[in-house]
Amino acid sequence: TEKEKFVFSEDISLFGSKKKKCEIAEVAISFGLFDLGYRLINEFRLPDVSIYANAAVSLAASGSMTKITDFLGNLKESVQENDFNEICYQVIVALVNGKGDLKGAEKLIVRLSDEKYRYKSLIKCNKLKQAYLSAVKIGDRAGVQEVLDEAKRTNSKFAQDLCIRYLEQNK
């Protein structure tokens, strides 16, 4: 794979550029070496959120739910809550768009603490009624509109009716 070629290449070095160090940290995390990636990020003051996000998307592309859940479990303790929500959402999007793994993506939604990310994830997983309820919970008209747009795209009459009724009542 691309990662293996990178790891076993002769030019791998922690004395290289910041970009190279970021790549090494991403690969370490992608291989399940979270502690090593974390230490590299801290030692060299690397941009943690972007490294974690790239590693997460890479893990999602591999399709290993065990590795993804382990990674997210470790990550929860290492980043701020909003950053965690963003990274978890990116994993969900990657699972749905890349692998078409709706079931795996759905299992990750419960890890999200932010309702906005939750309803966006539910839309991605085509759970429109739940997405509608999540958007209404926080009174997000734009979120309900997003659900309506997806309901129209997928021809979900029930979700369309819910959204239209809410939008008309909450102008």
Notes on the structure:
The longest helix has 19 residues, at 81-99. The chain has 171 residues and is mostly helical. Helix 6 packs parallel to helix 8, helix 7 runs antiparallel to helix 8 (115-124) and helix 9 (128-137) packs antiparallel against helix 10. The protein is elongated. It contains eleven helices and no strands.
How would you summarize the topology of this molecule?
Blueprint: H1 2-7, H2 18-30, H3 34-43, H4 48-62, H5 65-76, H6 81-99, H7 102-109, H8 115-124, H9 128-137, H10 141-154, H11 157-169
Radius of gyration, Cα only, in angstroms? 19 Å
* Count of extended strands: 0
Low-pLDDT regions: none
**Structural class by SSE content:** mainly alpha
Identify the overall geometry.
elongated
The amount of helix comes to over 70%
Number of distinct helices: 11
Strand content: under 5%
**Largest sheet features:** none
Mean pLDDT: 90
Query: What letter string, H or E per element, gives the SSE order?
Result: HHHHHHHHHHH
Termini separation: 53 Å
